Amino acid sequence: MPRTAHRRRDRRNSHTSEPSTITGVRREIPTYDLMRAEGLELIEAHSERLLSEIGVKFIDDPEALRLWRDAGADVAGDRVRFPPGLLHSLLKTAPKLFHQHARNPARTIELGGNNVVFAPAYGMPFVSDLDNGRRYGTIRDFENLTKLVYASPWLHHSGGTTCEPTDLPVNKRHLDMVYAHLKWSDKPFMGSVTAPERAADSIEMARIVFGRDFVEKNCVIMGNINMNSPLVFDHAMSGAIRTYAAAGQCPVIVPFVLGGATAPVSMIAAVTQAYSEVLVGCALAQLVRPGAPVIFGNFVTSVDLRSGSPSFGTPESALASYVAGQLARRVGLPVRCSGAFTSSKLPDAQAMMESVTALHASVLSGANFVLQSAGWLEGALTLSYEKLVMDADYLGAMHRFLKGLPVEEDAFAMDAFSEVGPGGHFFGCAHTMRNYETAFYEAELSDTQAFETWSDQGGTDMARRANRKWKEQLRTYEPPLLDEGIDDGLRDFMARKKEQLPDNWH
Amino acid sequence: MPRTAHRRRDRRNSHTSEPSTITGVRREIPTYDLMRAEGLELIEAHSERLLSEIGVKFIDDPEALRLWRDAGADVAGDRVRFPPGLLHSLLKTAPKLFHQHARNPARTIELGGNNVVFAPAYGMPFVSDLDNGRRYGTIRDFENLTKLVYASPWLHHSGGTTCEPTDLPVNKRHLDMVYAHLKWSDKPFMGSVTAPERAADSIEMARIVFGRDFVEKNCVIMGNINMNSPLVFDHAMSGAIRTYAAAGQCPVIVPFVLGGATAPVSMIAAVTQAYSEVLVGCALAQLVRPGAPVIFGNFVTSVDLRSGSPSFGTPESALASYVAGQLARRVGLPVRCSGAFTSSKLPDAQAMMESVTALHASVLSGANFVLQSAGWLEGALTLSYEKLVMDADYLGAMHRFLKGLPVEEDAFAMDAFSEVGPGGHFFGCAHTMRNYETAFYEAELSDTQAFETWSDQGGTDMARRANRKWKEQLRTYEPPLLDEGIDDGLRDFMARKKEQLPDNWH
Predict the structure, then answer these.
(1) Is any Cβ of chain B less than 8 angstroms from the Cβ of A195?
(2) Is the dihedral of CA A424, A429, A431, A437 positive or negative?
């Protein structure tokens, strides 16, 4: 258990404004299985061909090449080809189900099975809000966003690089990001992956909070590994996989598959490629440390062949999500799937049209870890404050959706029909009074009022209401407790690390 | 066949701007079956209890009561109770699959099975656009909207009361609406249901176009029957069902089920009620004329218990859609399900968030007829010009979605992987050049451009782009051909009917 990270809780318990604890949500509805078994078998067979005939490159990572050679792969230069069956055999040691511990034990999550965990957007260089428009992200933005994610009951995970703090040196900002996750939130989080030594720093900071022994035996930090598709791991990415896996921490292996650009223009081929790439990444983690937790990631969309830019929330990518979910279940690994994706530059109709399309597919595909589920705009270039809270509100609706429709006897309300009869009204009947408080999810940012009332109140659109909401959430934010000794330990570590290296700005 | 309605086509074929013909779309992906058989059986069993113990009222319709008495139902006053099994037995004569003929035979649709037909919003008293805001609909709006629906390749059906032409007398506007559908479009359409004589007028106008004999033997018009839930048919609604069915035309039976208001606050009970009500309406049509085409309608959502207004695009109503689809398939009737629903007053993020939620559930539930699939705002009070074209664009995406991911050998693109290899780019490879034109749906109103390009072009949101689009569509609209003799016949009929009655304004 985390030793003292949350030690002061009891003393101040009566006057904290800590958000309610929902540690993931269990999916109680079936997955949507788009493709029949024969189709999935064809994908698997073509994947074996791709892996054995074309193979994958590992750039500047002799250690990875050595591991593959020892495992029986065919290594020629930096190209690795995999005999059929090798990867599936290696993946047998990967856990189907594992916990990522949070420094507040009440927020520890379980990954795999029917669990669904929502995490915010990741990797955006820009931020935007309605007042100040779009600009480069700063550490101040990063802290704000971490606080907003902490405040939402529907986001179970603090994420990682929610925005890039571009006002800090490239080679040091990971320290401030990890610190912000640990200081301003007590939800589980992700560390740096941009270089193996930054991954190591992230894990070291987790050790300060959770204790070295605890971290050796438990997953407390994830790293999101974006591959260099098609079929390449550069040394930063394969190095980060090795660093996380060696520490028993969880790399999330995510191909970056854009049909027509980094993958063939056919979605089936793109899915086959993504499947192949993710198997390689997950198996590498097992070579480093058998039993290391890994997540089977999925990121498959297409380029808009008019603009040359990626498009998001498309029907093709929704179909790909369903198939990816099925493939992951056949491998038996926890799966990450698409989030609230959009190409839109604004929190407008396009943004939510595309985001809901992608998110629905993710949820029904059986995703266990939905990174990018809140805040994303502009094809991952911009984190919108307004979209963050809009998406979070929608994730609340998804919590309700995942619960399905239970069919216990009271739900049939036969007493209400007897009481009300034909032509009556159910508003005040006994069954309604008994159940109304929990009957429906109340989407806070959706206006259902009469036109006149809405108009009298300013006739706002959803983005404007979201603007009010995030400001209110920042105004009322109270940090979770963090032991002062631990806080000092983290600050000392950061200070030492920052002194050791000159600032690097690119 | 329609005799002469489309007679002039050949002569002018070379220079018409007629939109491409897509007569519905076939679903090639599986339905999403949310509920297990045991749950569905529980709903069916509770429905039998509801129908036999509580029953349904038929207000001021002695003919309907006579039909039910003769069929073996228990009729006491205006209350009808149904012995278990009676309705299912009557429904055996209803067709599982039928055509609705369009005056242009190339636009005739098939209903039932795996067919999906999209139709626009229905019943809105207000219209809105970005330039002029919200105001009462007029016949000019009605004509515009009919033209916009005609212009979209993704809307297969012209709909019915797309907006209320409130500048025309209540007892005569149905004539002008039916005329507009026949004059400005050649897609299938719906007639009036607000009184049996207006339903009869609508059918009579169809006879002028299609010929009396043809109409006797074929479905050429639908009527959308909104029930007075809970458990009531007023004489206008049951009269309209009888009128359409007697003429061999198709009533769409749609409960109006709002959990917490016109139904219990539990979604399972609301679904059970809706299921029961729709069985009664469909069976009444079979009593009038065995074999009459009917559509099993579904409209289940909830009231927002804060505002007292209906809420749309909720997780609960999405769940209800899936179950309704399953129940309809067990009965074996073509099913209408939810469309692009929202409570929003603007074509904003809320509007598309809710609409996509409802529409996805409709499509995956196996809906055959998706009325309300374009233009809806404000809980069916407002038809938005912008939302109409935004939704239509999204329906194009749904066409692509419904096609799934075929797994033929070329789709695996093995030649592309050989050509490109690890680290390459697929943009110009042979497989891409062979397939790029048909690979992806191109959403016309979704901007995927780089921020700078988008910004230089005005930094528009989706609603603004939609505003440009509908104006362009009206500017370039060309009417489909209509035989002059038929046109004269329709005008004569309308003039005679209008002379027979004084104007009625409420």
Answers:
(1) no
(2) positive
Q: Please give the Cα distance from A407 to B272 (Å, whole number).
A: 11
SS (H, E, C) B245-286: HHCCCEEEEECCEEECCCECCCHHHHHHHHHHHHHHHHHHHH
Max intra-chain CA distance, chain B: 79
Whether A306 shows a pLDDT value over 90: the answer reads no
Q: For residue B356, give the nearest of A320, A356, A364 by CB distance.
A: A356
- Reduce the secondary structure of A205-259 to three states and give it as a string: HHHHHHCHHHHHHCECCEEEEECCCCCEECHHHHHHHHHHHHCCCEEEEECCEEE
Residue B504 CB coordination number (10 Å): 9
CA atoms within 13 A on the CB side of B245: 28
Please give the Cα distance from A222 to A294 (Å, whole number).
Answer: 9
Segment holding B226, helix H or strand E: strand B222-226
Facing B265 at nearest CB: one of A269, A304, A439: A439
pLDDT of residue A358: 97
Give the whole-number percent of chain A exceeding pLDDT 70. Answer: 96
CB proximity A114 to B under 8 Å: no
pLDDT, tens digit (0-9, with 9 covering 90-100), for A358-401: 999 999 999 999 999 999 999 999 999 999 999 999 999 999 99
Sheet holding A25-26, edge to edge: A25-26, A115-118, A369-370
Inter-residue contact A372 to A122 (CB < 8 Å):
yes
Q: Say yes or no: A76 contacts chain B, CB-CB below 8 A.
A: no
Is B413–A349 a contact, with Cβ atoms under 8 angstroms apart?
no
Q: Average of pLDDT values for B378-388?
A: 97
User: Minimal Cα distance from A417: which residue of B?
Assistant: B54
Per 3-state DSSP, chain B is made up of helix, strand and coil in percentages (nearest 5) of 45, 15, 40
Q: Is the ipTM of this complex over 0.90?
A: yes
CA–CA distance, B229 with B278 (Å, rounded to integer): 10
Phi, psi of A249 (to 5 degrees): -100, 170
pLDDT of residue A257: 94
Identify the DSSP state of A411.
G
- The residue behind tokens 């959009």 is A342
Closest CA to B21 of B158, B181, B153: B153
CA A45 to chain centre: 29
Confidence tier at A21 by pLDDT (50, 70, 90): low
* Rounded Cα–Cα distance for residues A465 and A118 (Å): 22
Structure tokens at B273: 């009620």
Contact B382, B345 (CB under 8 A): yes
Whole-angstrom Cα distance, residue A399 to residue A155? Answer: 10
Q: How far apart are CA A204 and CA A496, in angstroms?
A: 13
Name every chain B residue with its beta carbon within 8 A of the beta carbon of A271: 405
pLDDT at B23: 77
A12-22 average pLDDT score: 49
| pLDDT tens digit sequence for A76-90 | 999 999 999 999 999
pLDDT tier at B363 (50, 70, 90 boundaries)?
Answer: very high
The per-residue pLDDT for B498 is: 97
Token representation of residue A417:
């029909």
Task: Using CB atoms, pick whichever of B261, B343, B352 lies closest to residue A448.
Answer: B343
Is the per-residue pLDDT at A4 higher than 50?
no
DSSP state of B70: H
Strands A79-81 and A56-58 come out as antiparallel
Q: Rounded distance, CA A69 to CA A57, Å?
A: 13
Structure tokens at B317: 């109503």
pLDDT category of residue B306 using cuts at 50, 70 and 90: confident
- Looking at residue B141, what is its pLDDT? 98
Kindly give the pairing relationship between strand A310-311 and strand A300-303.
antiparallel
